[in-house]
Design a protein that fits this description.
This protein is α+β, with helices and mostly antiparallel strands. The protein folds into two domains: about 140 residues, Phosphorylase Kinase, domain 1 (2-Layer Sandwich), CATH 3.30.200; about 200 residues, Transferase(Phosphotransferase), domain 1, CATH 1.10.510. The strands form five sheets. A five-stranded antiparallel beta sheet has the order 1-2-3-5-4, sandwiched between helices. A three-stranded antiparallel beta sheet has the order 6-8-11. A three-stranded mixed beta sheet has the order 10-9-16. The longest helix is centred in the middle third of the chain and has 20 residues. The radius of gyration is 23 Å and the shape is globular. The protein starts with 10 loop residues before the first helix and ends in a 22-residue tail after the last strand. The N terminus is likely disordered.
Length: about 425
Amino acid sequence: MITLSPSMPNDILAYRLTLYENLKTYNEFKIERMLADIEDKATGIVCLSKKIEPYNVQMAIKIAENITTDSSKEIFILKHMIPFIKDKQYHNLPIIYNSFQKKRDFILNNLIDDKYKKDKNSLFNKISKFLKQNKNYNIYTNELANGDLKSFFNKYDNSQEITEELLNNAIIQIIMSIATLHDIGIRHNDTHYGNFLYHKIKPGGYIKYTIRNKSYYLKNLGYLWVIWDFGISTQLNGITDYFRDYEMLSLYLRKPVFDDKNVQLYNMRFLAKDIENGENIETRRAHGNLNLKNKEIPVLISYLANTIYEFSINTELNHVVNKDVMSQIILDKNKKNCFKTYTDISTSWYRIQVRGENIDEATFLNEHINKIFADVFEKNISNINDTEVLFHVNINLDQINFKNQNQNQKIIIPRNM
């Protein structure tokens, strides 16, 4: 948990980086409990450390198989983010403290206190269940967050603690965290609501975002949001390559939608991917994944999700799909004069090209997304002085120049990852 003293306007910058400098070589921690298990490309766990003195903090510890396309790539990206957080104040990115490799036996015998080894349901046995082989595992320690967007929505739905104002503020920071990640050349590829984490901080002042010379001031309401989990992230390429991350996020900002026959409606981009995987039409990804039972989704967030959806069906798509099924979809949609299709016979790839032109990410944000939140951003900016700005994120969103990487100021993922 990040705590700020009232005396320094830039305490977020100072505190996070001070902890990083003190913990970047620290490996004498003890695991207190297991937070979650991972069973994807790499098997592993997320654990919580005991308090580390004299800093009075706990760390999130991720232990995962040493697979280059997953945990090793994530460590590479996290480590290369640190200069951007230091030099460019990209504080909607997470901080990794340290990483190293140890075998299963070392982890079980040295990183767990003896008091957690007593019974069959002990922490020792829970961890040994997931670390099945005595081989090297990647261990990386990270700053500990207070929760994620999924739990934040649950609190909004079931209590008065989280307000509509706090949710709107959170979603803006989350949008900016995606833009910040893209600005350093990385596409996330898994932007569900479990991969956005928040830290509770002292409220007050403003976060300043500048996107191609257009600035926005967002009130600091006591929550700092960061994007997390880069195991399947890839290099960002192309003028419209950015859009998938916003599109996937939008699925977690709206409820499932049903037609007049009580059949769920679907986002066309993910619909095509599901057809490619041969899934039954009734079991495909629903149009929305946010299940609020007691409250409605805030109006601005609904408007944001719908705007992204409109862009989703007005953006070029590429998928290898079953010809007969896809032709039927295109035929049905053509009744609304929305779609046209053509085939590249040499590759058997089908493209759905929808009306509208491609726009770059900065224009997408400035001219479409941020206008939705015009009333959330501070309007009387003439009254804001520099001491009130906690940090300033200046996002250019220039494309990567692979021929001259020294001029990029981007993270270039090695090809073997």
